Amino acid sequence: MIHWQGYVASNLYFNHRRDQGHVLPSIRKARVRAGTCRWGLALPAVESLFGDAGGGALSLGPIKLKGIRQNNLNGFDVEIPRGSLTGITGVSGSGKSSLAFDTIFREGQRRFLETLSAYARQFVGRMEKPDVDHIEGLAPAIAVDQRSVPRGARSTVGTLTEIFDHLRVLYARAGTAHCPEHGVPLTGRTPESVVDELLTAYEGQKIHICAPVIRDRKGQHKSVFADLTRKGFVRARVNGEVIRIEDAPELERYVRHSIDVVVDRLSVNADSKGRIREAVAMAVEFGGGDIIALDSEMGQRSWSTHRSCKQCGREAPPLEPRLFSFNSPHGACIDCNGLGRLRRPTIAKCVRDGSLSIRQGALSVTRASGGALLFPKADFKFLEAVARENDFDLDTPWDELSDAGRAAVLQGTGESRYTDYSNWAGAKSKGQVTWKRRYRGVLPSIRKSLDAGSKRKQLERFLGEEVCGSCEGSRLGEYGRSVQLGGVTIDSILGFPVSGLDAMLNGLHLSKREARIARDLLTEIRRRSAFLVQVGLGYLTLDRSADTLSGGEAQRIRLAAQLGAGLQGVLYVLDEPSIGLHARDQSRLFRALEGLRDLGNTVIVVEHDEATLRGADHLIDIGPGAGRSGGNLMAFGTPEEVSKADSPTGALLRGELPLAKASEGRVGLGASLTIRGAEGNNLRGIDVEIPLGLFVAVSGVSGSGKSTLINSTLRPALMRHLELEGPDPAPFSSIAGFENVDALVVIDASPIGRTPRSNPATYTGAFGPIRDLFAGLPESKMRGWMPGRFSFNVAGGRCEACGGAGATYVELQFLAPVTVTCEDCGGHRFGAETLGVHFKGHSIADVLDLSIEDALELFSDIPKIRIPLKTLFDVGLGYLRLGQPSTTLSGGEAQRIKLAKHLQKRPRGHTLYLLDEPTTGLHQADVQKLVMSLHRLVDLGQSVIVIEHNLDLISVADHVIDLGPDGGDGGGALVVCGTPAEVMACEESFTGQAMKAGPVAPKGAPNEKFIDELARGRSDTISVRGARTHNLKNISVDIPRRSLTVVTGPSGSGKTSLALDTIHAAGERRFVDSLSTYARQFLGTRDKPPVDRIDGLGPSVVVEAGGGGSHPRSTVATSTELHDYLRVLWSRAGVRRCPEHGQELVKMDAGRIAKDVVKRFEGKRGWIVAPLFDARVESEQAKEESAGPDVGESKGSAASKVFADFGEARSAWIAAGFARVLIDGKEQRLTPDLTLPFGTVRVDLVLDRVTFDEPSRARIAEAVESAENLSDGRVSVVEKLKGGNERHEYSVRGNCTICGFGFTENLEPRHFSFNAHVGACLDCSGLGASWQCDPDLLIDQPELPLAHAEGENTANTAISGKLGRYLTKGKGFYEAMLRKVASSHRIDLSLPFGKLPEAHKRLILFGEGARKSYAVAVAKEGANFSMEQNYEAAWPGLCGHVDAWHRKSEDPAWSSALEEFMARKVCRGCNGERLAPGPRSVTIGSKRLPVALAFSVSEALEWFGKLRLNKIARQSVQTVLDEVRSRLELLNRVGLGYLSLDRPMGTLSGGEMRRVRLSANLGSNLVDVCYVLDEPTVGLHPADVEMLTDALKAMRDRGNTVIVVEHDESLMRRADYIVDIGPGAGRNGGNVVAAGTPEEIMANPESLTGRALLGEFSTRAARAKKNSKDCDGGKVGIRGATLHNLNSVDFDATFGSLTGVCGPSGSGKSSLIMDSFVPALRGEPSEGRWKKVVGSLGGARRVVVVDASPIGRSPSSTPATAVGLLEPIRNLFARTPEARMRGFTTSHFSYNSTKGRCPSCEGRGATRVDMQFLADLWLTCDDCDGKRYRPEVLEVRHRGYSVADILAMSVDEAAGVLEHQPAAMKILGTMQKVGLGYIALNQSSTTLSGGEAQRVKLAGELMRASGAGRSVVILDEPTTGLHASDVERLIGVLLYIKERGDAVIVIEHNTDLLRICDELVELGPMGGNGGGRIIATGTPAELVKNKDSITGPWLKPYQMKTKRARKTTSSRGGA
Predict the structure, then answer these.
(1) What dihedral angle (degrees, nearest 10) is formed by the CA atoms of 1360, 1365, 1369, 1373?
(2) In angstroms, rounded to a whole number, what is the distance separating the alpha carbons of residues 1378 and 1802?
(3) Strand partners, 1279
(4) DSSP run (H or E) holding 545
(5) Rounded Cα gap, residues 957 and 1146, in angstroms
(6) Which residues, at least 6 apart from 357, have a Cβ–Cβ distance to it below 8 Å?
(7) 1106-1138: b or e for each residue (b if 16 or more CB lie within 10 Å)?
(8) Other CB atoms closer than 10 Å to residue 1433's CB: what's the count?
(9) What residues contact 329, with CB distance under 8 A and at least 6 apart?
């Protein structure tokens, strides 16, 4: 563990001096041992050294908000102290939630969610950016409110806290299945354990080993005996008797028989173990997993490999977590479907009133009109017949009927039948029928309908609820209930109180295996349950249903989860956490809030509770009023400072807002409601009397039973009495006094409406009279308008553009949707004509925009309107707007609106009002108004019952009923009842004592254990304790928060396991757990890491530098999600255009067109016409159908078509009443004899002649509507001018006015995706390229003609082979078409194709210039037939035919044959732009999307920066534009400005690809986030590393913790802190070697990283290079490489030399070597990539390419398999005498073969335990003890070693054992030469480091290359992921290969490796188009001196300025 003060001292001083450019002097001599350091400098002294030093800042400033204008907030600025408990308060509607949730929380979570993928964001809920100028210092935010807790019937305390999820995994992985019927364990046996038991149980005896074949089945089974004989078996046991199969008797067919085949008979002893093993294996195979052993007395024992019951044979299903989930069909009880309760018809529900007779309606199932029952369908006449037979009648009161009579009615009369009648009289027939039928009874009939699923809603009122008898309420199926762990079932645990859970779990007796599986699960369960206990919820059971929890309990469950998460640096926002909490519970809640704060978080609470406000650190008071009267910052500061403010909150804190007390002498009605024996939930059979005519308050702590008494008992019972539908009441004995209540009104805080169309005016009924008033005004009467005209919900008066909503809803896919004010109505919701009607100067829209107070004044003399408005004003809602959408109202406002609605009604009889916590969300000033309204109700003679915790309200009630004393099992009793004074006098009442104490800051005796727990959690470091992820060896380490920390160490040492799989996994999981369950399933969090504890951890974001996709559909834009945003941008703000003519396509209704016409042609005259015939359009279309010399003909035919169409339409126009037409712009009267002059071009039907002015606007609109139907939505406006007419075209449907093109559906982002079917070009499926016929490949003999004269079809043509026969020979369709086209266009096909004119070639090949279609006749004759066929088809050209065949082909062979004549080319359909024509033509700022995607990053950034949109478009997409610019800026910042957005990711270099991925994650402005980066410098040039490090430090300086897994020394030197993991890799790593500042690491003699930072490895590598031998071999190279950005580059490689290729990322290194040089050496065709290959290959026969990717993805892959060593080892063991004696082959010695591998673990040596959300466990296989092989295979030995023993050895150890095996030694020797002597042969490839994997592959390649001459060995960035010590080993290997005479080429950025190269080739000087040239060549020393070299300056050896003393030991060199 690192001493934190020491870190601060050295780190801050180091940064301070370094940042000022000073060379760091020696700080002090220090001895650092194993990651510990001790300093004497105290923390205060460090802080006084200097000011803000950059890295490692210990505190951050406040959260600063400027210009807040969200909702009603008025642009104020405010600061919130970080790490404080801040309360935001103010009157209801003042803007508290707008500040806390809609601004602070929304932006905090939005910024964090932006770090997720676009895919994930669309599921987790989109956050709109708040309306605020600036927010600084914001951390990731979490909202905690009561609404975030699921309250459905399927949620329980266990599911809410996820304790049940952990228990399910625990029981699935460690539990033992038991038979549900017999209770015996259901265990399966392994074959090997059966063998062991046989050897023990039958030692020295003779036994039969049998396999059951037939079990208790009828039949003769002759085929079974025949099959056994055929397989070589001799004996069988038939019905208990062992006989020879040949002597088997004929079995009786209809008798049950059992047959067991005798697999072997043998004597049991040690020597027979192999034979027993084989017999058992055979028995398992033939017996389906069952084995039987018979002793000499025929006594039987049996075993099974399945989990089955020995008594009944029932097999257990697989133990999976879903088996224990009552929300899964696999685990739920089948009877109750996992609900634990059943809904069934009950007598209580079916009998409505027992004092009535059946005829009077005693039964609830009686038809409403009487005379019949609904269930079953039976009229009373039929029922009388039933009654006569069963001795009862329909007129006796139900209660007086005999039991038998009641049973007959309810249960039915069995099979007895009774006469029934039916008659009918219809229009065509009438008649009657008499028959006898059964009477089913009421209850069976309801059950039948229920099972059928019909009439469910009707049946609900007859159903009651009862505990399921099958599962007894546990909800689980029988198998889930039967699984035991330590003798305890899971449903037993679920019934335990949380407080007893820990003790119960400690009492479980677990086996070693069970304990290992349970360890992490039990730890997590204990941790979660402990926090529930700490917040006072220990009395809850895990199976408690969520819908029975009180609001306070639900809130504290959510809080407990956040406390348990242990996050630090998070911003928590809570919405009125005191809601539903008693004063005593508030103390516990407040301590929990303080606990969150004390963990290092900022806690913001929206609150009204006076006690909570007094206890807060800081208050923000918003006001002074609500709505428009609020939104101002009234005061902020400490509670004492805010109490001085002139605001309602200030008055509250000064005690100046008392509540009104009851009227003097109020005595009530003198009657009461008396509840006796109430025992629902936790009620203890209490008796309660509730006086009527008074204000009664029901109080008690949370969970005491208040809601159960009132809402679950009294309310349903009263509803039943009043004959209202409702749920069953909770159990009670009786309730007296219902006769005194005439009505029940329930007022709660649920919304008054679910849509914005509902508002206070509509809900209270005020809007109806207002509409009547406007409809009665003179203007309305004159126009015949009814009240519906003034409703925004009715078509006619409302604005149709927005549907009366006043705004349009713009969906932005994965961004938050935007609501934009309607452009047509300006947000007024009504049409312009409707808004023209005014009352006292107010339009209907103006009235809806008035506040209730202003509206009350306006309508003061209209009673119908004044009365509802006055009641709203009286309850304190005068500030609300009449038309304010209901969705914007708070719960308190909704409740008071409901109250106002009831207050305006005249009471009829005595009404009981029930209110559940009416003060919810109300400020004390609002509570004053509420209390006055409630007193008013009571003064009117009504009764009011209020469930409440507000002490002020309780104190002014007439009567108080206090329940308790505690919650849960500790509650449910009546503590006290009486006046408030009497309650205060009760010592046992928590309510009374709280009332007596008054409002004080919450205090209480803190739970010391709880406080200690929280205190340990807060830290200035990220403190990891007991990390065991992968190879980590229970390590502990402290990482400074808000610093740049590098986690480093040798490859495979465990760096990533610590940083990503432990720290990041924990931080990410903790934060994601705070999101909704729905959202979490899409986020793919990592498994929970195996670690004891992590403190000080905030939300974590991983920035992985893995390569992007190389799929052709993946581009720079798609990988950075820019394409997603651009798709949204073009779909929402793009201008639709015709793809052919570019015309803007605007969809306009008649009203908009009329408005535009009046504006455009104001005061002028002209015509509104329907354009019907246009010869120019017809001619354009004809051009497409004709070609060449025939074009003139098409023009004439188009004109003739106009004449013909006009003649047909003329009569119809006249009949329709039209009088005029325009013929070429001249008006003509439409008569029956009107003809068109010759040469007529255009004919328009005149719809109206009009003056274009405002009075004619309606007339113009009417004419436009007529044109819409006549001319497919086209309409023309022709202005009459002297010199000619001016014409303007419109389209009602948004089609092109020239060609008619239009979009058939609204454009969505998917239409702009080339990866979606609707958006992709159909020709290339969105790839931009397609298989196209290549004319050069098709016409393979151009010297020949395409077709010969008739009769010469046997001769060769220009197209040979099968395609020639199809296309040009054989008298088929294609040849006939070809000849027809040729004759139509005068082409001579007998000429050689090569001599045809170019135009004719293109017509024949591609159909260019072809007509629309050609008519072809094909005649065929045969010996027995004569046929003639006529076709008319288009001519796509010969290539077009081949393309069509390929496109339609479903035969791979045919497709492959066609592709021999095809090539992938730029798509002709989209010209490579990938999109369909419609989306491709949409523009923004005159640019189409493909054009924008072709921009480089810097060009796009400039263009989008200058882009200007209109106001409406800007409102819609401003957030999208901001995001696009932000992401482009990030790409530019990391040096990728040269990349084009449509550049395929597969063409990027490794460095470019990583920077693309990094840029997508570096743009967040969050603070207190833990960013984890995995080797971000991979593939980066040293100059790029500097830029990246600057970016990382900027992230740190914002207040974040940045953890980087890295080996780059320059980054490590600039880091604040380093954690060195090691000392080796894999099993030799996993420890913390050292931790501290870079200087401390360099001072640590044990740290390999320290030595690397000192340059020791570089020095040793240089010495190795100096001592290496150079070989003068030949050269091989290429000339003129031009692939991608290469600019005719030449490259040579020398044999016996090490050549390094370097240069900036994207300069062309990989393009030159991997994509050009390597293919050239392998003999691939150039295809334009290079000009030629030069030089002698010098005998080189192999090109070896090696990278650092894993050698295998499976644990079964090992170094032995990778290098081919397993084969000689298997051969060796197969040759041993013992193996040959047993008949073993080489397959038996492979753990991948079923013959040799252990069947239990399938050759893995361990079994995997899937722990779901925890990391998987690998447990050593019990059968093979981890050795992977069957026991009999392990008995074969070589020199005393089994095959498993040898594979477990290291390479060096195996070489000693196999020294006489040449084949094996050759491989082992090679592995030793590449430095792998230490590695274990059977080490899983997945655990190898990158360097080890690379050397394993090198060894394999060297083995394969041996004896094959010299090789060219190429390594692409071989130092990727390698520590300096690994690089040193790699250098040694490369020098060894070089000395062999091979040419070695490395593409590299690592300067240590480049320094030892013989020659360097540098490309550059930039990336992309700025690179592709060789800028420097020579030795490393020459590049250092070369001024043109970019890399040269970085090749200078690092010079340490600090000298230090350290011991040099001999052991160091091999570390």
Answers:
(1) -140
(2) 65
(3) 1166, 1286
(4) none
(5) 65
(6) 394, 395, 396, 397, 398
(7) ebbeeeebbbbbbbbbbbbbbbbbbbbbbebbb
(8) 12
(9) none
Identity of the residue numbered 1553: M
CA dihedral (1657, 1661, 1662, 1663) in degrees, to 10, reads 100
The number of C-alpha atoms within 13 Å of 436 and in the hemisphere containing its C-beta is 4
Pull the structure tokens for residue 1859: 């020294």
pTM metric for this prediction: 0.69
Place of tokens 């994965």: 814
DSSP label of 2010: G
Nearest residue to 1299 (alpha-carbon basis) of 1445, 1180, 1429, 1471? 1180
Q: For residue 1870, what pLDDT is reported?
A: 85
Block residue for tokens 């029922």: 383
| Residue (of 609, 572, 610, 576) closest to 594 by Cα position | 572
Peptide bond into 1544 cis (omega under 30): no
What CA–CA distance (Å, rounded) separates 1499 from 1493? 10
Burial of residue 1399, with CB atoms counted within 10 A of its CB: 0-12 exposed, 13-18 middle, 19 or more buried: middle
Q: Is the alpha carbon torsion for 1785, 1789, 1793, 1797 positive or negative? A: positive
Q: Please state whether beta strands 1973-1978 and 1732-1734 pair in parallel, antiparallel, or not at all (unpaired).
A: unpaired
222: left (phi over 0), alpha (psi -120 to 50) or beta: alpha
User: Rg for the chain (alpha carbons), in Å?
Assistant: 44
Classified as helix, coil or strand, 796 is coil
Whether 1371 contacts 1418, CB under 8 Å: yes
Decide if 1931 contacts 1868 (C-beta within 8 A).
no
Joined tokens for residue 755 = 């849509």
- CA dihedral 68→74→75→80, nearest 10 degrees, is -50
Q: For residue 2002, what pLDDT is reported?
A: 42
Pairing outcome for strands 632-637 and 132-136: unpaired
CA dist., res. 1093 & res. 1702, Å (int): 45
Distance in angstroms (rounded) separating the CA atoms of residues 916 and 894: 13
How far apart CA 1687 and CA 1969 sit, in angstroms, is 9
Amino acid at 577: P
Question: How many C-beta neighbours within 10 Å does residue 1159 have?
Answer: 10
pLDDT value for 35: 33
With residues binned 3-state (H G I as helix, E B as strand, rest as coil), the percentages for the chain, rounded to 5, are 40, 20, 40
Using CA atoms, how far residue 1346 sits from 976, 1370, 1374, 1436, in Å, is 109, 13, 12, 16
DSSP code of 1060?
A: I
Determine which helix (DSSP H) or strand (DSSP E) holds 1693, and give its type and residue range: strand 1689-1694
Name the residue among 1265, 1285, 1286, 1279 with its Cα closest to residue 1158.
1279
d(CA 1821, CA 1819): 6
Distance CA 1083, CA 1064 (A): 14
Strand 686-691, strand 672-678: pairing: antiparallel
What is the helix (H) or strand (E) element at residue 631, kind and residue range?
A: none
Give me the residues of the chain with pLDDT under 50, please. Answer: 1-58, 813-816, 1004-1017, 1107-1108, 1178-1198, 1738-1740, 2000-2015
Q: How far apart are the C-alpha atoms of 1762 and 1892, rounded to whole Å?
A: 12
On whether the CB atoms of residues 610 and 1000 are closer than 8 A, the answer is no
Helix (H, G, I), strand (E, B) or coil at 955: helix
Backbone torsions φ then ψ of 1401, nearest 5 degrees: -60, -45
Kindly report the three-state secondary structure assignment for every residue of 690-712. Answer: EECCCEEEEEECCCCCHHHHHHH
Q: Which tokens in the block code for residue 1069?
A: 């999981």
